[in-house]
Amino acid sequence: MPDLHFHLNGRATATEAEPATLLVHLLRDTLGLTGTHVGCDTAQCGACTVLLDGQAVKSCSVLALQAQRRTVTTIEGLAGPDGRLHPVQEAFVACHGLQCGFCTPGMVMAATCLLNETPQPSEAQVVHALEGNLCRCTGYVNIVAAVQQAATAMQGERA
Amino acid sequence: MNAPTEAARFGSGHAVRRIEDPALVQGQGCFTDDVQPAGQLFVRFVRSSVAHGRIVGIDCAEALAMPGVVAVYTGADLEAAGVKPLAPAGGFKQADGTPMNPPPKRQLALGTVRHVGEAVAAVVAETREAARAAADAVLLDIEALPAVADAVAALAAGAPQVWEGAPGNLLAEARHGDAAATEAAFAAAAHRVTLVIVNQRLAPSPLEPRSVLAEVAEGRLTVRLSSQMPTGVRGGLVHCLPGQSVDSVRVLVGDVGGGFGMKTALYPEDVVTAFAALQLQRPVKWQAERVEDFLTAVHGRDLLSRAEMALDAQGRVLALRVRSWANVGATPTGAGVAIQLLIGPWVSTSIYDIPTLSLHISAVLTHTAATGAYRGAGRPEAIYTVERLMDAAAREMGIDPAELRRRNMLRPEQMPYKSPMGQTYDSGRFEQILDQGLALADWPGFDARRAASEARGLLRGRGIATFLEWTGGNALEENVAVRVTADGFIELTSATMAMGQGIATSYAQLTVDVFGVPIDRIRILQGDTDRANGFGSAGSRSLFTGGAAAFVASQRAVEAGKPLAAEALEAGVADIEYAAGRYSVAGTDLGIGLFELAQRQPGLAIVADGGAKADAPTWPNGCHVCEVEIDPATGETKVVAYASVNDIGRIVSPVIVRGQVEGGAVQGIGQALCERVVYDAEGQLLSASFMDYALPHADGFLGFKTAFDQSIPCLTNRLGAKGVGELGTIGATPAVVNAVVDALAHAGQGRAAEGVQMPLTSETVWRALRGDYGAADKLPVG
């Protein structure tokens, strides 16, 4: 099995992966990071979204070996070292942006990517950024509100 | 000490952060597939690619020889091992009065396949990949037979037959009401309206697909799965698996990634996975792929109706007459039949004073997946029907649709009211809800908004739905165990089941009301049949049954601590008072903390059980008003305003109930505008992925105005709460469709617009604007 070296949630990680193994299965099955979820088989639902070199990607559509010498951030790597929630996580809680929580890790990662690139997005930009993530519980209402609240909080932190 | 006021901020009626959320937003939830015991095996099913066929042969030799393959099972293997089919649907009769006779629900097909995706064999292997490869190597020889996928075709003369126990594909029939009185009312009516109504088939689509992990430990079978009804699952496993009893089977449920009714059933795949674990004495996992949920999880709705309403000259409804055909699939579930033949009919007359009705419903077998519970479960179909009729009648008579509804609403002084369906509504002030709904929606301002839309080249329509629904599942009793622990927690154990609805937080808030401690001291334990058993969570019942039990059990625990405190404080029990986490002796400053008292007990805990039984179901209700804009060039239809006023009785968790109504409404909008399970004429499933089955996305409507009127508590449970989980879904579909029909009618289509059928995709609306409503809707004869 080929070796795989990459940065995962801030740590240098050495493992190995079969050429056909998907990143999501490496994370869940080999590395035990089960916060990244699988909700479909056709790259529609976005529950598996992680950051690859800061970009939101669907980890069901990326081979594990494509992470070679790159940086991956999953939902488990988002909170601060002191356990403090990332502003996007905090806003999802504060705004009731989740119900069953299955889509939430992917939603949070997609939103984090958006806010890193577009710190003060319009509602239309938020909706556009989340078009690849499905939620069946919330109707998206509070998810969009949470992303907007997170944007405000992160702006405050930068100020 | 400011603990009482501090803790009270977390009690019922207050907006709190959900106790479920910190784990879920950090990826620390525990969904079934997150549990990965060492050495677990993986199941993969070999499924029929045809809708109807005779199994000629199953060749497993090549698969069995492949690396990593541990076992391959067929229907014959299960039968030989004494595995019984799932409990059959029952409780209804055929047209000739004999009991219905559904086909057996086998876990793996035997002899005949009856729908696409039906499991024929199961491969068990060391890895997911090995299981997949070996499943591909199982050679199925199935002789395809003619198939039929919709109720109209299934009832036609000469149609392929699904099962010999249902001649003509008619499984069961139900009639409700008074046919003669209804006929007389129609004969005397000044106005009659008739609609053909299609409640299309839907896929519930919780984001977490079905998932099950079975293990055998110390002689017992433990099955962990994503379910709303752990006790029912246990009972089903015991029914199917030889030699098992309720004592030998434990069902565990962790986090459930959405249920919506789909996860109330025990599925064939669950039984096969448990069977494999028993055979192989190793942990066995089955994780459904999304396509497998589309193929073999229950679908919802699928009801075809000819609906008629008779009114007098003043617009008073005299009678309702509905003839319906429910496509319940090939191997129907009990719920799938009951939902259409009984549960939906219960709300047929809704909040209106309709003196008589006549319903005739047939359950029809087709070569499709079984239907079952999906959010609303019968009430969306019935409410959609009566609310579409109300609009048609208003158009027929030239009366404002809100005014026509008002003329027919039950009045508060009629409560308790017994409907022609024999259902008793305990409470309701429907006109009060209507008035608030019209105000919230700015009903009088619509003409100006329509003019503004038209100035931008867009059509605008407005729709209203005023309605009630039934909640409770007719399982009205719950028990809760409370344990106050020495390490400072109050643990409640309940047989209801969390699935995203926030029930743990709501129970915790009710517990705070009693104990007066901060909410972070409360833990809610669910999903373990070794600890609690009951009906589970369905039918919007969990709060008004389980929440009442949580409240009672908490009160019992406080009382149970009083003699213990008296002993610790060397005082009389009558002198012991409790407040805010502390027992004290009245009139003194002597006292002991709740958790310190627990520590002093031999079992390091104060324990109590408590139960509550509601007297009857609850009847939540609402007024939902929707406005849509349509681009006449493309037919694209957008919800642009949505206001709702809801009576759900007393509110425990205000943030949660708003999320339930709005998230539920988006599911109802999904039925109205985009969702539809599609089989072709040969029974092939065309909508088998999220590419082809259109769920609402984030670019839908976000601007809900949602209000609640708490002045009308439920009178049949001690909380005064009414169910909330399905209300939004039930109201949204008719409100949206009535708005689209209004826009089409105003755009020159007139009454013809009433022929439009869901989902109202751009193409459907574009065609309707050009007078094309598809082939005239066929209805079966009779």
Description:
The complex is a heterodimer of chains A (about 160) and B (about 775). Chain A has about 160 residues and is α+β, with helices and mostly antiparallel strands. Chain A folds into two domains: about 5-75, Ubiquitin-like (UB roll) (Roll), CATH 3.10.20.30; about 85-160, DNA polymerase, domain 1, CATH 1.10.150.120. Helices cover about 35% and strands about 15% of the residues of chain A. Chain A is built from five helices and five strands. Chain A has helices at about 25-30, 85-95, 105-115, 125-130, 140-159, and strands at about 5-10, 10-15, 50, 55-60, 70-75. Chain A has a five-stranded mixed β-sheet with strand order 2-1-5-3-4, covered by helices on one side. In chain A, a hairpin with a 2-residue loop joins β1 (about 5-10) and β2. In chain A, α2 packs across α5 (about 140-160) and α3 crosses α5. Chain A starts with a strand and ends with a helix. The mean pLDDT of chain A is about 95. Chain B is an alpha+beta fold and about 775 residues long. Chain B folds into four domains: about 5-25 and about 475-615, 2-Layer Sandwich (Aldehyde Oxidoreductase, domain 4), CATH 3.30.365.10; about 50-145, Alpha-Beta Complex (Aldehyde Oxidoreductase, domain 3), CATH 3.90.1170; about 205-295, Aldehyde oxidase/xanthine dehydrogenase, molybdopterin binding domain (Aldehyde Oxidoreductase, domain 4, 2-Layer Sandwich); about 305-395 and about 405-470 and about 615-770, Aldehyde Oxidoreductase, domain 4 (2-Layer Sandwich), CATH 3.30.365. A seven-stranded mixed β-sheet of chain B has the order 3-5-1-12-9-10-11, with helices on both faces. In chain B, a hairpin with a 2-residue loop joins β9 and β10. In chain B, α11 runs parallel beside α12 and α19 packs across α20 (about 725-750). The longest helix of chain B is centred in the last third of the chain and has 28 residues, at about 540-570.
